[in-house]
Amino acid sequence: MKHAYSSIPVCMALLLGLSPAGMRAQQTPAQAVPVSTTGAKPAADPQLKISPLRQLQEFEPAADAQYQIGAGDTIDLYVAGHPELSHPYTVGPDGRITLQIAGSVTVVNMTRDIAAKAVADALSAYYTSPAVTIGVEKYGSNTIMVFGAVQHPGVLDYEGTPPTLLDAIARAGMTTVPGSKDGLPERCMIYRGNDQAVTVELKQLLTSGNPLSDIRLRRGDMVFIPIQQQQFISVLGEVLRPGPVPLTGDLDLKMAITDAGGLGEGAGSNPTIHIAQTATNKEITISFHQLMKPGGGNEIKLQPGDMVFIPKSGFYKLTYLVSKISPVATMVSLGALAAP
């Protein structure tokens, strides 16, 4: 797929003198955010907690992080002295490759060296001290999705290291932003998996020189660029279509979950629904059965930026990690800890 490129974000960064090294040197420490709970059923456990700066830094992959093999990648496997085993293998959707004699071996989410050791261990039952090396011939899993107010929404393929946020937006192509002289969107959202989301106030971050304006992305990330002045909430966790949901005037909690595709199989029959109100740093919980009763959830008023999280059945202790990076970045990471 061919993509039109736009240099607006990159040029803006250059005009502001925001080199990657200079931007990261200006990073400001996290500021404490007052935390409280409210609503028809305030949450006692889990509760809204402040995240240290380390948590936000962990959201961004390390610059020197080794590539991890993904489903769809084609790897070049070499076993010294065994040409019958040495050829390309495509990693299946289950994260495995199939070897002669040794059978299936899991290599997904492993570095080349670790995957080579896993293959050598599998072969050692049939061969004496097999020497294995692995390279990546084709990066079939290295993708980022960009959608929303861009010219070319969809999946972007990358060779090697995933891109930064500005690179991904430039590849997707900027749309005309009414009333904006530089064409930059005010903010964007990064979704990682079905349980993490970060809001990036892009224009303010660029202007202030904050390095998070060009945060490094991770394979599989989804970048959402809202339409100017568009208001939305995020529905994450055990739903069929986790991600942003437009906040219309009549949107309530039931409709928001429906718009996200409804409950997924992992939610169970009566999950506890958690609403993190990012504007006030408050949290509300309500059971699914209570929500589905006549008038259930009417007291819960959704606000722009709210996070709705539905945990996996059997996981009941949730930790909401909220961090504000001065002055304009907010991250909410929704993680589940297994019950003891």
Features:
340 residues; disordered N terminus; 2 domains; alpha+beta; 19 strands; five-stranded mixed beta sheet; wza like fold
Describe it for me?
- With 340 residues, this protein is of the alpha+beta class.
- The protein has two domains: 8-64 and 142-337, no CATH class; 74-138, wza like fold, CATH 3.30.1950.10.
- The chain has helices at 8-15, 20-25, 53-59, 112-123, 165-172, 202-208, 253-259, 288-292, and strands at residues 30-31, 48-50, 74-79, 88-90, 96-99, 103-106, 132-138, 143-148, 154-157, 188-192, 196-200, 222-225, 232-237, 243-246, 272-277, 282-287, 307-310, 317-325, 329-337.
- The strands form four sheets. Strands 1, 2, 8, 9, 10, 11, 12, 18 and 19 form a nine-stranded mixed beta sheet that branches. Strands 14-13-17-15-16 form a five-stranded mixed beta sheet. A three-stranded antiparallel beta sheet has the order 4-3-7, with helices on one face.
- Strand 13 and strand 14 (243-246) form a beta hairpin.
- The radius of gyration is 23 Å and the shape is globular.
What's the arrangement of secondary structure elements?
Blueprint: H1 8-15, H2 20-25, E1 30-31, E2 48-50, H3 53-59, E3 74-79, E4 88-90, E5 96-99, E6 103-106, H4 112-123, E7 132-138, E8 143-148, E9 154-157, H5 165-172, E10 188-192, E11 196-200, H6 202-208, E12 222-225, E13 232-237, E14 243-246, H7 253-259, E15 272-277, E16 282-287, H8 288-292, E17 307-310, E18 317-325, E19 329-337
Parallel strand pairs: 2-18, 8-12, 13-17
Antiparallel strand pairs: 1-18, 3-4, 3-7, 5-6, 8-9, 10-11, 10-12, 11-19, 13-14, 15-16, 15-17, 18-19
